[in-house]
Write a structure and sequence with these properties.
about 260 residues; mainly alpha; Four Helix Bundle (Hemerythrin (Met), subunit A); two-stranded antiparallel sheet; 4 strands
């Protein structure tokens, strides 16, 4: 029997039409992150590295809320998962890689553009591995450095250098080593804490609210310094905890 496209047939049951369409609000937020990454690429090509870095940070904000909006409204879907991964690849893979190449890596020639390419490639591999492990992997840990914090380290470095230290460029060799290190951390088996599992609906002690308000106030007063410190601390937390467990507990905690 010929079945029309879009119908599903099971033994003994009539054809059922597949539901089509997308959830608008989460998709719009993901599109905003996608646009931010694309605009960061354009800005870095035009030499506006400071703006490109801020737009990558903005993309991190959109990426952080689109999943929460989808779960809060019951609008999760496989389409949203795949669209989010494509957006992440542009905003946190291609955009920071092109930004770093145009900013400081270009004088290194082949070594420079290979560093940028490796960062983007490892970011894609990190996203692909995350999508395949989302059902079976640990819920409270990420396996390898997530791609948004990796991009955040590079963007925050630009912000600190040009926005706070008033330097035209950071030391080129330091950036080159950092890009290679971040790329390897993304595809490593080192576990990182997953703060997305923290519930905002459950009751918390009052001092936690005061601490969060204080943190927001400090970040608003010293955004360049605090964003850089937060990004670097999170990127280093995985390797340091892994070394701590290996040195004092005999073996590192299994990643999965």
């Amino acid at each position: 029997m010929n079945t029309p496209v879009g119908d599903v047939v099971e033994d003994g049951e009539p054809p059922r039409r597949l539901r089509r369409g997308v959830f608008i609000v989460p998709s719009l937020v993901t599109s905003a992150a996608f646009f931010s990454g694309f605009y960061a690429i354009i800005a870095s090509i035009n030499g506006d590295y400071y703006t490109a870095a801020w737009v990558i940070i903005l993309a991190m904000f959109f990426d952080g809320i689109d999943g929460r909006i989808a779960r809060a409204t019951g609008a999760t879907s496989q389409f949203g998962v795949e669209f989010d991964s494509l957006s992440d690849l542009i905003a946190f893979g291609a955009a920071p890689a092109i930004l770093m190449y145009n900013w400081v890596l270009q004088p290194f020639g082949k070594v420079g553009w290979m560093a940028a390419f490796l960062f983007c490639l490892c970011g894609a591999l990190r996203l692909a591995r995350f999508n395949t492990m989302v059902e079976t992997g640990p819920k409270d840990r990420f396996v390898g450095l997530p791609i948004p914090p990796a991009a955040g380290v590079l963007a925050a470095t630009v912000l600190l250098t040009r926005g706070a230290l008033d330097m035209e460029r950071a030391p080129s060799l330091v950036i080159l080593v950092t890009v290679y290190a971040l790329a390897l951390l993304m595809v490593s088996n080192i576990p990182y804490h997953n703060f997305k599992t923290l519930s905002m609906r459950s009751r918390r002690p009052f001092h936690i609210l005061l601490g969060m308000i204080l943190l927001i106030f400090v970040v608003a007063q010293f955004p360049h310094h605090l964003l850089f410190a937060m990004a670097v601390i999170y990127a280093l937390s995985g390797p340091l905890e892994w070394l701590w467990r290996r040195a004092f507990k005999g073996s590192p905690q299994p990643a999965a």
